[in-house]
Amino acid sequence: MGVLNHELWRDEMQGWLIARDSTAIATLLQNQRYESGRSFVSFLGFFAISQVTRNPLAMQLFHLGIAATTVYLIARFSPFTRWQKIALTFSYYSFFEYSLICRDYASSVLLIVVFCVLFPLRDRTRIPLACCLFLVANTHFYALLIAIALGFPLFFRDSIFLKPINPNFKNTQTPHTRHSIPHPLLQWDFFVSVGVWLAGLVIAIGFMLPPADGTITPQAVKPFSFSHLASTLAIVWKSYAPMPGITLHFWNTNILDDGTAAVLSVGLLLAAIAGFIRQPSLLIAYLFGTLSIVYITYSKFPGTMRQWGYLFILFVACSWLAQTLPTQLNWTDSNPFWRWSNWLALRRNSILNGLLLIQLIAGGFAFASDLQHPFSQAKAAAQFIQTQASGDQLLIGDPDWAALPISGYLDQPIYYPASKGFGTFIKFNTQRRDRSPAEVVNQINAIAATSPQNILLIRNQPLDPIISSALSRFPIELARFTGAIVQDENYYLYKLQR
């Protein structure tokens, strides 16, 4: 029901259009390089679906299948309690952000869960696990960081501590012995799996680097400020405990201010460190993944809930693996940090249950809001164009990123002034740039002077009177579609009267 009701917004439709309108896999792989921080795994899945149908609903159903598989694996194989499994199923990410919204994140989460499911095979063979990390790295840049982080417990646990210190540890899934297979084969398996893992990282970086004419490049490092530091630290709490504002435009909001959220984030980080300190390889994985995402957020790209969600996914993955790995570090009870760690260990489930309760409430609210309100008005605008507007018309969309989802629903190219040409998806190259109002008007007037077709102008805000007066054809507003959750995907349709 949620998938059938959800309207695709521009980022979702962009991925589908790149896959659908690429004529071959080689073309697809070239086109996806213009996307920021995205690799090929999800695009290949969308490409396969698009060979059967051009309807974007197919992508949504495919994406729902990925999310449902993830939920099944968590319910069937995770070591969490029944309540925790239920809460994870209906959490903000599983129920809304990574299920209804079709992006690369669901694929990477599924592969991370598969990695956790297969992790008990580690002492038999690491190759399937390395293949999982290969694919994880090639979904999204933030997933690449997680793939690096999870390499620590996979490859380097034994090099940090050879034997578990706790002799009473009992792994309820698979015994962790270093010689589950003959020693020469173990060495061969280790080097092959490391090679697969490293190859995945290198290939992912290669695909994520923009081509020579690409225009999406990393931002310059921002100067230090305490307010910026607080807003960056706040993302840990916001990702673990999403608390969206009770408003139409709830998406990517949080009711707590950045200062309060930053303080709570520090508390969560210290609690997680104390919880994972017994298993140093997991602690290193957690710290690397968390701090690298925090650093990227601070210095390069602020991100939103969908990127910050990887912080929570990493925490869940480490919590899962912590229950399958033996204790490798032990201190005496005279150590105050160790006593605090012991105290937190006894309350680990309570802390996780509290976070999952917040996730559960946020997931239900977000899902219900998506049912009640249009996520984007692109679908409604496209339906109006199909049924009410004249069939013989030339479509012009400005800005292009706003008109893009309408192109997907219509299955029709739109003229984008930003690129000076017709298209469906946006290729972020040097040919495309934001145009001034005067440049847009000049392009529209040039088309109007040579085209006998009716012109339909698609905007995401009302037409400015100054722009209207500069157009050679008088604009008549046909319809407007407002009230979308995504604030800049409300639409205004104008017929340019000859």
Q: Measured on Cα atoms, how large is the radius of gyration?
A: 25 Å
List the secondary-structure elements in sequence, H or E: HHHHHHHHHHHHHHHHHHHEHEEHEHEE
Return the structural class.
alpha+beta
Largest sheet: 4 strands, mixed
The coarse overall form would be elongated
Mean pLDDT across the residues is 90
Textual characterization of the structure:
Helices cover 58% and strands 6% of the residues. By secondary structure, it is an alpha+beta fold. The chain has two domains: 2-372, no CATH class; 378-497, no CATH class. The protein has a four-stranded mixed beta sheet with strand order 1-4-6-5. β2 and β3 (421-423) form a beta hairpin. α5 packs parallel to α8, α8 runs antiparallel to α9 and α13 crosses α15. The longest helix has 26 residues, at 183-208. The chain is elongated and about 85 Å long. The model is unreliable at 161-167 and 169-179 (pLDDT under 50).
